[in-house]
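Lab meeting notes turned into a lecture example. A postdoc, R.K., suggested we walk through two folding results consecutively so the class can see how the record format repeats. The first protein's sequence and structure tokens come next.
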Amino acid sequence: MKEITNEKDPVHEIYIEAKKRGLIKAVCYGCSKMMGVLEIVEEEGLPLNGDMRNHVPLAPYVERGAEIITF
């Protein structure tokens, strides 16, 4: 998150476009907290999911045909 929210990052424009289109469906709360980017995720207004013990459940997305992309 620290990198892709920076305008100079090579994937910044892709991130912005994905965000505009509503393609970012969930950001793992636990991972965000542990990686020190929770504040950035909240500032970006991204949807948080899960808690400190559980990760975002990916199965429902995959079952609907979604492709999981991680940064």
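The second example is placed directly after the first for contrast:
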Amino acid sequence: MALRAKAEGLQVNGLAHQGDFLIGLGLLDRAAALGRDKDLATQESIRDDVKRLAGAGAGKMGELFKVLAVSSPEVALAPFRKKAP
């Protein structure tokens, strides 16, 4: 897909596993905010959801799915921003 996008003149802004992408967007901070001042069962449910969405291994989606960001023109998305040398 990335090669086809480039061939069509589009910018490939990044490719990442779903887990890395979600972490880069702030999933952990958001989960912490959602769980703040909640009961233990709710906090555990949020932790389980984060593990399912961003974790690796059986039953987890973090490495099962990938995110490809394509645009025209190039955009700087948080998880894909180029790091300074």
